[in-house]
Specification:
single chain, alpha/beta, eight-stranded mixed β-sheet, two-stranded parallel sheet, about 35% helix, NAD(P)-bd_dom_sf, NAD(P)H-binding protein, riboflavin reductase (NADPH) activity, NAD(P)-bd_dom
């Protein structure tokens, strides 16, 4: 399968690229600064603020994985800009990593997360919700992978997944497990038009 990963230079994006290459996919790593990227796969330039660069990067691929993430002053509107660029590029399929925090009324949020963490990231989560809405209204086949708090740990293979809500008592997950889940979903298509929320 021809897979292009947006945000391939990020901590999760690099792992997605590695897993996809290991799984035998034909992988393109789309990054803002190709010269600085040392991961696997073909490397191309793409900036989600530049729809033309996104259109060129995703052309000819079977699926787009969005592993973009905020970086300081570049964070505002990043996710929704990415979604609009993908719709403009008329992509067929998108697997987008957003966050378990996207849903305002998740019944399984812990008290501290609901009242301490979420308010600090309100704008970011709002932009992720907008990304999901834009893609949901497009012709693309979409999957929104919503991880709990991401950890920089080795994969465990031990996690739970629910459609649209955080697994009860789950509040974190290794990003390496998220990357494996994303790559497995490329072939499995178990979560088409769904929002699998992952936590261990």
């Amino acid at each position: 399968m021809k897979v292009v990963v947006l945000g391939a230079a990020g901590r999760t994006g690099r792992l997605v690229v590695e897993e996809a290459v290991r799984a035998g996919h034909e992988v393109t790593a789309a990054v803002r600064s190709p010269a600085a990227f040392t991961g696997g796969g073909l490397v191309v330039r793409a900036d989600v603020r530049d729809p033309d660069s996104v259109r060129a990067a995703v052309a000819g691929h079977d699926v787009v994985v969005s592993a973009i993430g905020p970086s300081g002053r570049h964070a505002h509107g990043l996710y929704s800009d990415c979604a609009r660029a993908l719709v403009s590029a008329d992509v067929d399929r998108v697997v987008a990593i957003t966050s378990g925090g996207v849903r305002d009324d998740d019944p399984n949020f812990s008290f501290w997360y609901r009242h301490l963490v979420r308010p600090l990231a309100r704008d970011l989560y709002g932009d992720m919700r907008l990304m999901e809405a834009v893609l949901r209204d497009s012709r693309a086949e979409w999957t929104f992978v919503r991880p709990a708090r991401l950890l920089d740990e080795e994969p465990t293979g031990v996690y739970r997944v629910l459609d649209g809500e955080t697994p009860k008592g789950g509040w974190q997950v290794p990003r390496a497990d998220v990357a494996r889940f994303v790559v497995e979903e490329l072939d499995a298509r178990r979560w088409s038009k769904a929002a699998p929320t992952i936590a261990r």
